[in-house]
Design goal:
globular, Transposase, 7 helices, mainly alpha, single chain
Length: about 130
């Protein structure tokens, strides 16, 4: 019987994590080209790794939820969950699952985008 040592498992986990980071780099550059245009790959990789570490503290670990969390970070800022008080509060709510908490944050962010677009349109109409 073959035995895999702890060190080997850690290497495999790190390799899998690095592959996911590369996949997310491609995904984010595809879906947020303007927001990420000035960010070099090495810096984007560091931002993604940092975000994934914070996501894990909220219990966000599935590939799908991590991708959604990263999309929010790319759109609203890499530290959106720590710079603003409400995302962290929502993401730490112990009464619901990490996926539900993330969905609530996502919905609130979309509402914020809608409000900003409406305000911007009103300002243009008023010549401001």
């Amino acid at each position: 019987m073959m035995k895999i040592r702890d060190a080997q498992v850690r290497v495999l986990e790190r390799t899998r994590f690095q592959q996911f980071v590369l996949e997310m780099m491609t995904h984010l550059r595809t879906h947020f080209p303007e927001e990420l245009a000035s960010l070099p790959d090495w810096e984007l990789g560091e931002e993604i790794e940092g975000c994934l570490g914070r996501a894990a503290t909220y219990g966000i670990t599935s590939r799908r939820d991590c991708a959604r969390y990263l999309a929010l970070a790319a759109c609203f800022g890499w530290s959106f969950d720590t710079e603003l008080k409400w995302p962290a509060q929502m993401l730490q709510d112990p009464t619901s699952s990490p996926s539900v908490r993330l969905e609530r944050v996502h919905e609130r962010c979309l509402q914020r985008l809608d409000q900003e677009a409406t305000t911007s349109a009103y300002r243009r109409e008023l010549g401001l």
